[in-house]
Amino acid sequence: MYSFLSHMAFAPAPDAAQPHVTLTFAQSLDGKIAGKHGQQLILSGPQSMKATHILRSRHDAILVGIGTVLNDDPRLTVRLSPEDLVAETTASALQHPQPVILDTALRFPRTAKLLLPTAPKKPWIVTGPIHNKDKRLELEALGARVFVLEVDAQGRVTLPELLSTLYQQSIQSLMVEGGAGVISSFLKSGLVQSFLLTIAPVYVGEHGVSAVQDAEGAPVFRDISYHSLGQDVMMVAKPAS
Ligand SMILES: NC(=O)C1=CN([C@@H]2O[C@H](COP(=O)(O)OP(=O)(O)OC[C@H]3O[C@@H](n4cnc5c(N)ncnc54)[C@H](O)[C@@H]3O)[C@@H](O)[C@H]2O)C=CC1
Ligand SMILES: Nc1nc(O)c(N)c(N[C@@H]2O[C@H](COP(=O)(O)O)[C@@H](O)[C@H]2O)n1
């Protein structure tokens, strides 16, 4: 069922000083990634959720925005059974990706699961030049690493600088999971090499959170294939450059 994933390479191009970027998320038939007021929804069925964890295991780092951390309190770890680890990956032990959070104003909660002593890798938090320095020290004392990068006029971390910073930290592959703001930024950036979209056979309705609010600048796709995973479909494609 997952052989299409094992045939995919997530390595940077030889001349690129940035990680391979994979954008992947789950949406409903009406293009929603969350419910009313951002309510977290489990859209993926068990088979496509396993695909997500296989993908996590294949990437050096995993990125979400601070909106997702505040809303979902995610762990961003790989959870695969020993049997699946052997059957679906080439790793002999679970390898968790490095969590990376885009957090312009350092709103990261001190109580987040990503900061628990049991978290396998403490988060890298990417913030802007204007942030609370005491909060930064507190987060660092809890194990986080804080990177300060430039932000654009809308207060968003500039993605080319982010990618070159991650590459300098030996991150060769980056899996971007969301949420809506981050998906839109990466889709428009021209910096995504692989796109894997889980489509679940449900409707959320007009009050749900759309994956993409504004399609201006979104890419055309090539090399498109569709894979049945239980009741879901995973679309795999490359944004045309
Ligand atoms: N179905 C799925 O696969 C997923 C669903 N979600 C859902 O997404 C929702 C959260 O989405 P959002 O509120 O839009 O938050 P988000 O997770 O996209 O974070 C957006 C925030 O990140 C910061 N940021 C810094 N640099 C940025 C940049 N270059 N581009 C974009 N943002 C940048 C800004 O402070 C911005 O407000 C939640 O409801 C969550 O459940 C999140 C991930 C996956
Ligand atoms: N693949 C996928 N399918 C869904 O239905 C989802 N809701 C998500 N959400 C993403 O997974 C994060 C939670 O991760 P942990 O289980 O805590 O490790 C959530 O924050 C979204 O990024 N993904």
TrEMBL record:
Pathway: Cofactor biosynthesis; riboflavin biosynthesis. It comes from the Eukaryota. Residues 19-234 form the Bacterial bifunctional deaminase-reductase C-terminal domain. Its EC number is 1.1.1.302. It is an enzyme of class 1 (oxidoreductase). Signal peptide: none annotated. GO terms for biological process: riboflavin biosynthetic process. The keyword Oxidoreductase applies. Transmembrane segments: none annotated. The keyword Membrane does not apply. It catalyses: 2,5-diamino-6-(1-D-ribitylamino)pyrimidin-4(3H)-one 5'-phosphate + NADP(+) = 2,5-diamino-6-(1-D-ribosylamino)pyrimidin-4(3H)-one 5'-phosphate + NADPH + H(+); 2,5-diamino-6-(1-D-ribitylamino)pyrimidin-4(3H)-one 5'-phosphate + NAD(+) = 2,5-diamino-6-(1-D-ribosylamino)pyrimidin-4(3H)-one 5'-phosphate + NADH + H(+). SUPFAM superfamilies: Dihydrofolate reductase-like. One of its GO terms (molecular function) is NADP binding. Keywords: NADP, Oxidoreductase, Riboflavin biosynthesis. NCBIfam families: ribD_Cterm (TIGR00227). Catalyzes an early step in riboflavin biosynthesis, the NADPH-dependent reduction of the ribose side chain of 2,5-diamino-6-ribosylamino-4(3H)-pyrimidinone 5'-phosphate, yielding 2,5-diamino-6-ribitylamino-4(3H)-pyrimidinone 5'-phosphate. Belongs to the HTP reductase family. This is 2,5-diamino-6-ribosylamino-4(3H)-pyrimidinone 5'-phosphate reductase. The gene is RIB7.
